[in-house]
Amino acid sequence: MIRPHRSHPLWIAYLLHRLSGLGLALFLPVHFHVLAFALNQPERLDGFLRFADNPLVKLAEFGLVFLLAVHVFGGLRLLALEFLPWSPRQKTLAASAVAAAFLVAGTFFLQAV
Amino acid sequence: MQEMDVSVWRGDANGGGLEHFKVPARDSQTILDVVAWIQQHADPTLSYRYACRVGMCGSCAMMVNGVPRWTCRTHVKTVLKDNAITIAPLRNLPVIKDLAADMDPFFDKWVAAGGVHHPTRTRDEPIEILDPKTPERVETDTGIECINCSVCYAACDTVSNNVDFLGPAALQRAWTLYLDPKDADPNAILDAVSGKGGCHNCHSQGSCTLHCPNGLNPMKAIAGLKRATVSSFFKGGR
């Protein structure tokens, strides 16, 4: 439960950025591990790719692409906040980052299914 | 007469807990009125701090239902939930007793953030005339009405997680001094705010700006300091 002093959009944007960063950090080693199969165990990679055609895995990939996109757009917002002249529209920018991430992840999902 | 359930944190630096009081509800009642009623009518040993009662002195800030607020200008009707209120001392500061927090760490950090004027002239010279319309002065004007209430400091999670972090108010003060053309050593300010516990620790969560009772924007000031320190690094290597 988010404590009362934290229940506002920019704190939630911070939480989303931190959680998506952690999620991606956990994903990357697994990603490289599976890619390494291409070099030494190609038949295992093919097996994994067949498993990845499963609709449930596609749904998980939607989540992954969303994490990646929300981290990218949220990171761009933070760079703009710190390096560009101040904009008072921080809540709008944070909401736009989430919306853009949904657009990217949704487009990926529609292409995939 | 209708009564409210008020839970007040009682204790000291060694710990404590919530105590419950029934307080009569009145029109136009503030949280500070509630605390004063308890101290005057229920328990005279309740300790708290206040002075002006009109939102100028910055003494009476407390946690109200988990949110830092200036209690003298917080109406009960805006925070009452299920006829109950919880009042506790400010977060992120040591407690002296009951609702009175020890403000020393907060003020020490104002000094640590370079909040000391470095003069360009002596008292024998005429006063330097400033143009109030320069961009620097217009920006400074948005940050100088701080009443040192420590609400932003209590709202900040970076302060909770990093004891060295200077905090929103001290950094905002440093930003306004950095912009001051009458300050002879802006680089000293940048040095003070770019070390351990400096502006780069800020995660831009924005709780300081959301909760500031005077509508100031310390998050903007800290972003300004981040820009200034980074451009100073690339220009002069410091």
TrEMBL record, chain A:
Belongs to the cytochrome b560 family. NCBIfam families: succ_dehyd_cytB. GO terms for molecular function: electron transfer activity; metal ion binding. Its cofactor is heme. Heme binds at H71. The keyword Ribonucleoprotein does not apply. PANTHER family: SUCCINATE DEHYDROGENASE 2 MEMBRANE SUBUNIT SDHC, SUCCINATE DEHYDROGENASE HYDROPHOBIC MEMBRANE ANCHOR SUBUNIT. Part of an enzyme complex containing four subunits: a flavoprotein, an iron-sulfur protein, plus two membrane-anchoring proteins, SdhC and SdhD. The complex can form homotrimers. One of its GO terms (biological process) is tricarboxylic acid cycle. The keyword Cell cycle does not apply. It is found in: Membrane. It comes from Hoeflea olei. Keywords: Heme, Iron, Membrane, Metal-binding, Transmembrane, Transmembrane helix. One of its GO terms (cellular component) is membrane. This is Succinate dehydrogenase cytochrome b556 subunit. Coiled coil: none annotated.
From TrEMBL, chain B:
Pathway: Carbohydrate metabolism; tricarboxylic acid cycle; fumarate from succinate (bacterial route): step 1/1. Its EC number is 1.3.5.1. PROSITE patterns: 2FE2S_FER_1, 2FE2S_FER_2. Signal peptide: none annotated. Gene3D superfamilies: 3.10.20.30, Alpha-helical ferredoxin. Pfam families: Fer2_3 (PF13085), Fer4_17 (PF13534). Residues 4-91 form the 2Fe-2S ferredoxin-type domain. GO terms for molecular function: 2 iron, 2 sulfur cluster binding; 4 iron, 4 sulfur cluster binding; electron transfer activity; metal ion binding; succinate dehydrogenase (quinone) activity. PANTHER family: SUCCINATE DEHYDROGENASE [UBIQUINONE] IRON-SULFUR SUBUNIT, MITOCHONDRIAL, SUCCINATE DEHYDROGENASE IRON-SULFUR PROTEIN. This is Succinate dehydrogenase iron-sulfur subunit. It comes from Hoeflea olei.
